[in-house]
Design a protein that fits this description.
The complex is a heterodimer of chains A (about 190) and B (about 280). Chain A has 9 helices and no strands. With about 190 residues, chain A is an all-alpha fold. With about 280 residues, chain B is α+β, with helices and mostly antiparallel strands. The chains are: A mainly alpha (about 190), B alpha+beta (about 280).
Chain lengths: ~190, ~280
């Protein structure tokens, strides 16, 4: 139980996927303009990451390892993540049209998100058990969403701030991301596995 | 042997997921409006966004839901508007199909370059670099952002360094107009009637005259000449209101730099060469 909690919090604060490991920078910069879309993307990522890690872990342990095919993990995981997102989309559309419309374009976008693939790959590399892997995925995705929401909050304020013209837009966003990343460095070493 | 396992394993995973997806698609099928599909088929399908929606399918959905008018598709023109109206059982509205017009005739013979630019061949970049290489900071740089933006092959770069619009090919989607960093291209009603002041410069007359042979110098001679009172001076640039212009052509001889032209008689490179040759002969 203690280990599960450590994993969960480590990947939210200490080894944050966006701010410390620099995975998923594209959505981090792309959809953090408005709080609403940031939350939508965050929810979609949490959902997909947990699902994807669960399935990839099972496939890895019960298909790839017994047949000595562990080297195929990247290809196999991409295949699994892509089909899973499709599947989720189809099911969501039927079961909950509101959620489907709410997630909108973000769901298919996640198919090609490197953070999702990274979670799946790291879960098997760190030799987590199934439960640990899922907790790891949920923690990592909550960390991702948190970074997104923080960034969206900052950017909404930056829109109204006075600053030199050259900094406006992407420039100030990247600088903010850098400072945010340094701030999160402060958590380093607080908990370890 | 190893490779067969690998292929078999991946193939199997793919097959299982594929089957799962197929079953899910059957099981969780959502009934969509067949009308949307039919409308989508009548559209040009270039996803230009001129209708204000993200793409053709979004527009089709909006039309089917009655959120937008049947003549919303600009590239499709009258034909598409009628086809959609027929599908929906409505009266077809008038298609509002404009045409792109380039408001600059200061080509490489009539406006000179201030320096040799060999940077990125992109109008936006060149325009941002020390105010652009052209003597006129409002004029066309001729690097072809509009040409690259056009999905219909309707705008080409002429040999004299100015884009030429193919009147029949142009669907009026306005992608070129938004691609131009200097807003030289305007979308006007698709008609060949009316005269236009083919200049985009808001500089004072003196500096226009110094930088371009054919720029509007804001002398107001055309305003006095116009019997229809269709010409107005807006920020040192004469603008002709096409609604009021009756094509009398009174303003043309009064315009000293020769900026005013009938819409179907926009001067070409050949004219420029002829005037340049005449000038050389005159000075010699």
């Amino acid at each position: 139980m203690e280990k599960l909690l450590s994993i969960f919090f480590i990947y939210i604060f200490i080894d944050n996927f966006v701010l410390q490991r620099f995975f998923g920078i594209c959505p981090f910069l792309g959809v953090s303009r408005k709080m609403e879309t940031a939350i939508g993307m965050g929810m979609a990522v949490i959902f997909v990451m947990a699902m994807a890690t669960l399935v990839t872990w099972l496939v890895y342990t019960f298909v790839l390892v017994p047949f000595d095919l562990a080297y195929l993990q990247i290809v196999a995981f991409i295949l699994i993540v892509a089909s899973l997102v499709q599947l989720v989309e189809i099911v969501l559309r039927k079961i909950s049209p509101t959620l489907y419309l709410g997630l909108g374009i973000f769901l298919p976008l996640i198919t090609t998100n490197c953070a999702v693939l990274a979670v799946a790959l790291l879960a098997v590399r760190q030799e987590f058990s199934l439960i640990e892997a899922v907790v790891f995925a949920v923690g990592a995705s909550i960390g991702f969403s948190m970074a997104l929401v923080i960034m969206a909050g900052i950017r909404e304020r930056l829109e109204l701030a006075t600053m030199p013209d050259v900094l406006r837009g992407s420039a100030v966003t990247l600088i903010t991301a850098g400072i945010l990343s340094m701030a999160f460095l402060g958590f380093k070493g607080m908990i370890s596995l | 042997m190893l490779i067969i396992y690998a292929i078999a394993a991946l193939g199997l995973i793919g097959l299982i997921f594929g089957l799962l997806l197929a079953i899910a698609a059957q099981f969780f099928a959502v009934q969509t409006d067949p009308l949307v599909e039919t409308i989508k088929e009548t559209l040009p399908g270039v996803n230009c966004g001129a209708c204000g929606y993200a793409g053709c399918s979004n527009f089709a959905e909006a039309v089917a839901a009655g959120e937008t008018k049947t003549n919303g598709c600009i590239p499709g023109g009258t034909e598409t508007a009628q086809a959609i109206a027929q599908l929906l059982g409505q009266e077809a509205g008038d298609a509002r199909q404009p045409v792109a017009t380039v408001f600059c005739i200061g080509d490489c013979y009539r406006a000179y370059d201030r320096y040799i630019y060999d940077g990125v061949q992109d109008c936006q970049v060149a325009s941002d670099f020390v105010g652009g290489f052209k003597s006129c900071s409002y004029g066309c740089l001729g690097l072809g952002n509009c040409v690259r933006a056009c999905l219909f092959d309707a705008i080409k770069m002429g040999e004299h360094g100015l884009p030429v619009v193919d009147y029949d090919q142009c669907t009026g989607c306005g992608l070129c107009a938004s691609a131009c960093p200097r807003a030289i291209i305007q979308m006007l009603s698709k008609s060949k009637e009316g005269h236009l002041v083919l200049c985009n410069s808001h500089e004072r007359g003196k500096s226009v005259a110094a930088s371009c042979e054919v720029g509007c110098i804001a002398c107001k001679a055309c305003i006095k000449a116009c019997p229809q009172e269709a010409i107005e001076m807006v920020d040192n640039l004469a603008v002709i209101d096409l609604e009021k212009c009756n094509d009398c052509g009174e303003c043309v001889p009064k315009c000293k730099p020769g900026t005013i032209h009938r819409r179907d008689a926009i001067p070409s490179a050949a004219d420029a060469m002829a005037t340049a040759a005449a000038k050389v002969a005159e000075s010699a």
